[in-house]
Structure formats: structure tokens, C-alpha cells
Design a protein that fits this description.
This protein has 261 residues and is an alpha+beta fold. It has one domain. 46% of the residues lie in helices and 20% in strands. It contains eight helices and seven strands, in the order ββαααααααββββαβ. The chain has a seven-stranded mixed sheet. Helix 2 packs across helix 5 and helix 4 packs antiparallel against helix 5. The protein is globular and about 55 Å long.
Length: 261
């Protein structure tokens, strides 16, 4: 679940809805054909479905220490491991290469966590164990695909890194626009047309818009999802949050992505 704060309310956005936005960005991206071979369909599957394992957890939303609906960054680590595994397996049964990219995306996030966060030793040990499992799974799948008529070239190191970076960029841009009003920032090493890597400048455009420079899509993009809006007040229990959500209808939430003026 993504908790988006606006004024005096929270918008609660399903992880799968965020991934749907990621998939739409992927579908309009200019430059992914630079991968060898072109795997546009598989990349879109990975972008659209990489959070497919969240549905079960989101049926029983919880609050954080402040009484707010708990967002995905506030989940227990062991819950995250289960959700990631479910997500990877859900993508894998659609397409093995897309499942591989989803697993690599997960592994890279935890590698960055080890590098940049000071988790206590027991938590770091659990991350190392989880990463060992993922790496063994990934290496086995790369080996299985290395003789595949469509995927043999795509599991070579350079092509795999290129496609993983695309998935990371699409996921990040979707999170940026879903989580809050966009602020100015830059994103490095973004693959564009012809395999060029650029510095992407991101800025806000109104409360629910984002501009990108250089503009990496085939045209301005309007993104529709459905989400629930609740008062931005603390709840005293998980059950209180769930009771409120039972009576809250889904409403359209619209985002815009366009070029910098």
C-alpha cells in the first residue's frame, strides 16, 4: 500500500495500481528497443506485474506507530520477503525472463539496503540469507535461458543490466508521482533512444503532475488509477482503519507526465 498525503487526507493506493502506472510508462518509453534482442513485451510484463504479490497483505491493512495507514516502506522485513517472493513467482509463471528481471530488481534493492542502511546485525543476516536464495534462483534461471532462441542474448550481462535499469527507472518514476507532490530531483544513468544513458531531470507540475527533461516518452501521458481517500487522522487500531476502509468507495486519481516547458 502507498500512503499519499494531500492536505488533510490520505490517498491509499494499491501496489498493483502503482505497478500499472509503471507499465504504462514502459509502454510509452522511447529507447527500450536498444536492448538486444528487443524484448518490449517482456519488459512491460515486468513493469506492470512486479508488485503482484501484494494483494494478500493489502486485504488486511495495518497502521504504523503514528496511527497512520502503514505504507510499503514501513512493512516488517519478513513480510517483505514473502511479498517479494510471491511477486516474483507471479511474474515468472507469465514469463520466465520477466520473472528474472523482477527478481534482479528485488535483489538490487536489498543490496542497496545493505550498502546504505545501518540495520542491526540480525536483520542484515536475514537479508544476506534472502539474497543468497535469490542469487541461486537467478543464476539457475540465467543458465536455463542461456540456450533459449529468444532469450540467450538477453541474459548476457550487458543486455540484462540494460533491461534491469529500465525496470528500475520505470518503477522509480511511478513511485515518485504516486507518493506525493513531485519535487525537483535528478535520476542518473537513464537509458534512452540508441542506448544512450542520460541524466533525467524531474520536476513537479501542479499537485499531481510531473515533467521530465529530456522527455523519454512518445507523448504526454495521462495516468488513471482508482484509489481510496480517507481523512488524514490517526487511527487507534488496525481494526479501526479496516472498518473505515470498508465504507470508502474507490475514486479516480489522475496523474500527468509531460515534457518540461
Amino acid at each position: 500500500m502507498i500512503r499519499r498525503e494531500e492536505s488533510d487526507s490520505f490517498w491509499l493506493i494499491h501496489q498493483a495500481a502503482h505497478a500499472f502506472i509503471s507499465g504504462q510508462i514502459a509502454g510509452h518509453w522511447i529507447g527500450q528497443d536498444a536492448a538486444t534482442p528487443s524484448l518490449r513485451e517482456e519488459l512491460i510484463i515486468a513493469a506492470t506485474c512486479h508488485d503482484a504479490g501484494w494483494a494478500r497483505a493489502e486485504r488486511s491493512p495495518q497502521i504504523n506507530a503514528q496511527g497512520q495507514p502503514r505504507t510499503f516502506t514501513e512493512m516488517d522485513m519478513d513480510d517483505h520477503f514473502v511479498i517479494w517472493t510471491d511477486s516474483i513467482n507471479a511474474v515468472f509463471v507469465q514469463n520466465r525472463y520477466a520473472g528474472l528481471l523482477t527478481s534482479l530488481h528485488c535483489s538490487d534493492l536489498y543490496q542497496k539496503r545493505l550498502r546504505f542502511l545501518a540495520d542491526p546485525p540480525p536483520a542484515r543476516a536475514r537479508i544476506h540469507d534472502f539474497l543468497d536464495e535469490r542469487r541461486a534462483w537467478e543464476e539457475n534461471l540465467i543458465g536455463a535461458l542461456s540456450g533459449h532462441p529468444r532469450y540467450a542474448l538477453a541474459v548476457e550481462e550487458k543486455a540484462l543490466a540494460h533491461n534491469l535499469r529500465l525496470l528500475q527507472v520505470w518503477d522509480y518514476l511511478s513511485l515518485v508521482i504516486c507518493m506525493r507532490a513531485v519535487h525537483e530531483q535528478t535520476l542518473e544513468d537513464v537509458p534512452l533512444d540508441g542506448g544512450e544513458r542520460v541524466l533525467l531531470r524531474i520536476a513537479g507540475s501542479g499537485p499531481r503532475g510531473m515533467t521530465l527533461d529530456p522527455f523519454p516518452l512518445d507523448g504526454p501521458l495521462t495516468l488513471w488509477i482508482d484509489a481510496r481517500q480517507i481523512p488524514g487522522v490517526p487511527f487507534d487500531s488496525d481494526e479501526a482503519l479496516r472498518r473505515v476502509l470498508e465504507g470508502v468507495p474507490y475514486k479516480p486519481l489522475v496523474f500527468e507526465i509531460g515534457p518540461a516547458s
